[in-house]
Amino acid sequence: MAVRHTPGAVPADPSTSPFDSVTIACGATRLVYRGRPLVMGILNVTPDSFSDGGRYADPDRAVERAAQLAAEGADVIDIGGESTRPGSLGIPVDVELARVIPVVTRLAATVPIPLSVDTSKAEVARQALAQGASLINDVTALRGDSEMAEVVARHRAGLILMHMAGTPATMQQQPSYRDVVGEVSGFLLNAVQRAEEAGIARSCLLIDPGLGFGKTVDQNLELLRSLSRLTALGLPVVVGPSRKSFIGQTLQVEVQDRLAGTLACVAHTRRCGAHVVRVHDVNAAVQLLQMLAAIDETPTQPNKPWSD
After folding, report:
1. Which of 11, 96, 102, 238 has its CA 20 to 30 A from that of 45?
2. Which CATH number fits the domain that encloses residue 254?
3. Is 278 considered catalytic here?
4. Which pLDDT score is estimated for 7?
5. Catalytic residue among 244, 258, 271, 304
6. Is 185 within 8 Å of 233 (Cβ atoms)?
């Protein structure tokens, strides 16, 4: 599958990122970072996700929404069949399979961009990759299912390793760190080591600090503030700020009013050299990144001293 990219300049402060161009291997396809974050569009096929639960639980509506995300400029679509909102308890594997696999099968035949599946279950990953997905987004960083690493390695799929303190059911119960950036960085490097030892190529790996997954408002903001420390670890970085509660608590707004806060985070991730940004509002994020790229570009001709 071809990956579409919008040409852009390198980050405003290139010294914050060790990369100018990065290719991420995802099975038979590739994701290519060229100086602006790739946009991962969120497609929740759940009845209970914190922001859009139930809107795309019907497969027809999910396929329609995916086509819209692709048309808006998404570089990859992340399909989730199990809510990982704070307090969620998880679902049986057969329920997740029934939600995810029909959608992946249809999208693989119709959407011209790579598909990611947000799951921590090896069987869901196995069937999704067999039906055409090329990337697994594992919020447990391989801790949730002992067979996940083998499945990803066998398919040579891309893999996002995310930091989470505890489980979705417990993660927001007084999260505590002495050094949130250092501890998250250490966790992610250990997860990368485990993945490589299991046979997953480093070129297939991405890391995600897990905004909102076992962090207070201040800890989330500190991770964003220190994002360049994560991009300096030498691996592609995924950031998922979209509509999250730390934005709502910072700005005192409900979930439906968190677009401006989300876009501020997206702009910040670009400045820090992050490689993928995971969002619900693809069109707004793509336009923001296009505008930043246009501002950064050096004009090829002198400005005209008049107006048309």
Report:
1. 238
2. 3.20.20.20
3. yes
4. 30
5. 244
6. yes
